[in-house]
Design goal:
single chain, alpha/beta, Rossmann fold, DNA polymerase, domain 1, 6-stranded parallel beta sheet, 16% strand, globular
């Protein structure tokens, strides 16, 4: 029997590989506004704190705030049309979701990706899997603030003591700790194991099978 009733997943880098589409939309926006494009490795380091921060990190240092707003709008328009171009589930993760549900666990997603994309991607790749799928929205603090996690707890009625947060970055690690719940960090996402350990992660898993073992005991 699992020690948890609810598993809250991060999206990008945890259950979906989204890096190429994020890079392509960022580079489209940068090129449209006359800026140099970024490599996949650079974008890997930029993600984790929402797309507005991704755009800010991708733009040249000292870019005017008004220009950053225009960059963000261009990114947003492009990504809305191209967020499914190369995005895909990580191998073994859809099967993991089926096994977790069969074990009686309830599942949700909390992400710093814009809310429309979170809902679209979850509906496309994980239809009917998640009770809640929440993303960045006006007036709600993004991760690592616990606000979105707390909203899921309120909706489900499950205590934080019976909930675990699963992610792939230092942002997810801090989110879980700010929310006062257990965390598990996966190594197949957008950070290296060395980076994760430097940020204090100790409960790191390398495969969906290992994650299942951590969540269902």
């Amino acid at each position: 029997m699992s020690k948890y009733d609810l598993v809250i997943f991060d999206l990008d880098g945890t259950i979906l590989y989204t890096l190429e589409d994020l890079k392509n939309s960022l580079n489209y926006a940068l090129s449209r506004h006359g800026f140099a494009q970024r490599t996949l490795e650079e974008v890997r380091r930029f993600v984790g704190n929402g797309v507005r921060m991704l755009v800010q990190r991708g733009a040249p240092a000292g870019t005017d705030p008004a220009e950053l707003d225009r960059l963000y709008e261009t990114f947003h328009e492009h990504y809305h049309l191209h967020d499914l171009d190369t995005t895909r589930p990580y191998e073994g993760v859809p099967e993991l979701m089926d096994r977790l549900k069969a074990a009686g666990l309830r599942l949700a997603v909390v992400s710093n990706k814009v809310d429309f994309a979170v809902k679209d991607l979850c509906a496309r790749f994980y239809p009917g899997v998640f009770e809640a799928a929440l993303g960045e929205r006006p007036g709600v603090a993004k991760k690592p603030a616990p606000d979105l996690v707390n909203a899921v707890l309120a909706d489900t009625g499950i205590s934080r003591e019976k909930t675990v947060y699963v992610g792939d970055s230092e942002v997810d690690l801090q989110t879980a700790r700010n929310a006062g719940m257990d965390e598990v960090i996966v190594s197949w996402g957008f950070r290296t194991v060395e980076e994760l350990r430097e940020r204090g992660a100790t409960r790191i898993v390398d495969t969906p099978e290992a994650l299942y073992e951590e969540l269902v005991r």
